[in-house]
Specification:
By secondary structure, the chain is an all-alpha fold. The chain has helices at 2-16, 19-22, 30-56, 60-87, 97-107, 111-135, 142-169. It starts with a helix and ends with a helix.
Length: 171
C-alpha cells in the first residue's frame, strides 16, 4: 500500500510540472552553440559601444545611430538569450577580453577620431555579424533559424546605416 501511495504521489508530482519546465531542448550542435556564444558577444559589444558613442560623440547622427544600436541589439540579445535558454546554452552577461579591448580602444579616443573609429568599427562589426547570420540561415535548429531569419534584416539595415555614416565621417 505504501508503495502504491508513493508511486501515485510521484506520478502526480510529475504530471503537475509542465513538460517545458522539466527538460530543455538541448538539440543544438556544437557549431550552433558556438554561433550563439559568438553572436551574444557581438551583440553585447554593440550595446556597450552604443553607450560609449552616446556619451562621447558630439555628432547627433552618430548619437541617434548609437541609440538605435542599443535598442535593436538589446532586443536581439534578449531574443537570442531565450532561444539559448530553451536549448540549455548559457550566454555571457559580460564582454570577453577581446571585445572589451575594442570598447576600451574606442573609449580612449576623442572628437572626430572617436567618431571615425566608431563608424569604421560599426561597419566592420555589422559586416561580420551579417555574414555570420547569413551563413546560419539554414541551420538545423528551427528556433535558432527563426531567430536568424528575424534578426538578419535588422543587421543588414544597421550595416547600410553604418556605411553611410562612415562615408560621411571619412569625407
Amino acid at each position: 500500500m505504501k508503495l502504491q501511495l508513493l508511486t501515485i504521489a510521484l506520478l502526480g508530482s510529475y504530471l503537475a510540472v509542465p513538460p517545458y519546465v522539466m527538460a530543455e531542448d538541448t538539440t543544438v550542435t556544437a557549431s550552433e552553440k558556438q554561433f550563439m556564444l559568438d553572436t551574444a558577444q557581438a551583440g553585447l559589444t554593440e550595446v556597450r559601444l552604443g553607450d560609449v558613442a552616446g556619451s562621447k560623440s558630439a555628432n547627433n547622427e552618430i548619437k541617434d545611430f548609437a541609440k538605435q544600436m542599443i535598442a535593436d541589439h538589446t532586443k536581439a540579445n534578449n531574443a537570442l538569450r531565450e532561444v539559448a535558454k530553451k536549448k540549455g546554452v548559457t550566454l555571457p552577461d559580460s564582454l570577453d577580453a577581446q571585445h572589451q579591448a575594442v570598447v576600451d580602444s574606442l573609449n580612449a579616443k576623442k572628437g572626430d577620431d572617436f567618431d571615425t573609429a566608431y563608424t569604421r568599427t560599426m561597419v566592420r562589426d555589422h559586416r561580420k555579424v551579417r555574414d555570420s547570420l547569413s551563413s546560419h540561415r539554414n541551420t538545423a535548429d528551427a528556433d535558432l533559424r527563426d531567430w536568424v531569419s528575424n534578426t538578419l534584416p535588422t543587421i543588414r539595415h544597421h550595416f547600410q546605416m553604418a556605411t553611410k555614416l562612415n562615408d560621411k565621417q571619412t569625407r
